[in-house]
Design a protein that fits this description.
The chain is mainly β. The chain is built from 3 helices and 25 strands. It folds into 2 domains: about 220 residues, Thrombin, subunit H (Beta Barrel); about 80 residues, Roll (Pdz3 Domain), CATH 2.30.42. It is elongated, with a radius of gyration of 22 Å. The two termini are about 25 Å apart.
Length: about 325
Amino acid sequence: MRKLKFFFAAAIAAGCIFLSGNTLPARAASNEYYLGGMAAGFSLSAGGVEIVGFKDVASVDGAKCPAAEAGMRTGDLIVAVDGIHIRSISDLNAALARSGGEHVAVTIKRGAEHKSFSLAPVLEKGGDRYKIGILIRDTLSGIGTVTYIQKDTLRFGSLGHAVCGEDKTALTIADTSVYLCSIVSVNRGERGKAGELRGLFLNDTRLGSADRACETGLYGKFADGYDFSTAETVEAAPLSEAEIGKAVIYSTVDGVAPQPYEIAIAKVDAGNRDNKNFVIKVTDERLLAATGGIVQGMSGSPIVQDGKLIGAVTHVLRIIRIPAMAITGFSTK
């Protein structure tokens, strides 16, 4: 995944980014789509178990923290124990139980490096579990924007770019459920700082399920019975119909309701091999005041020109840390 850059016009500080034409679906029989723009929350797998903190284990021999003593750090990703791949918290717990308190070789990923540590799990005093003194999680939560929902199949597309973690490692879908998000605050974009949307997963409002993650985003199917009564219906236009001039993006930067914001398409590049087919400039004063331009979390915002869907905003998916209380039912350990 490429991390896209922000550009700022000196006069109005309008953010410009590239867009991906390939985020549009193959045309359905009716060529009609419900317009997206709603913020959606996804649960993603980091490919191991991430250390988020340390805590001494109370044992019969006193308080110990084998992981910290061995040299492990916050942010390390545990990927194997004694050569057996670790994908989840339950995998790690099982590996520690098998140790019986004997030394194990724990392999972690730290940035681009892999390191191995030898340590002995400690039996928790008054319990029956072996621990190494770490606070962990096996999933990450991300916010992105739904681009479209096919009217006849309810298939949806979102994000418009590959899903990656903070170390640019590709992530996979850990929980297929996709939930509506309520945007509660915005870190505005500034020169040298992308900015981001901050939101809460609304676990009582399930949008649907994801079944595919690829270089152009996350895809899946909206839930049967979802209320589309207020959704706008549009047709998809081929890239050849896009032109320099006024257009509109639909995004949610506050609450749960998408809003239209004016932009200008400054360049059309139909031959771009990286699917970055447009350059846009945000001209809507409301959006500039609220966000400073395009910020992380707006990835997937649909672009409409002359009443037709022509593409989607692409940007980096910001992996966010949400307290467990805000996302009941999602593992953040």
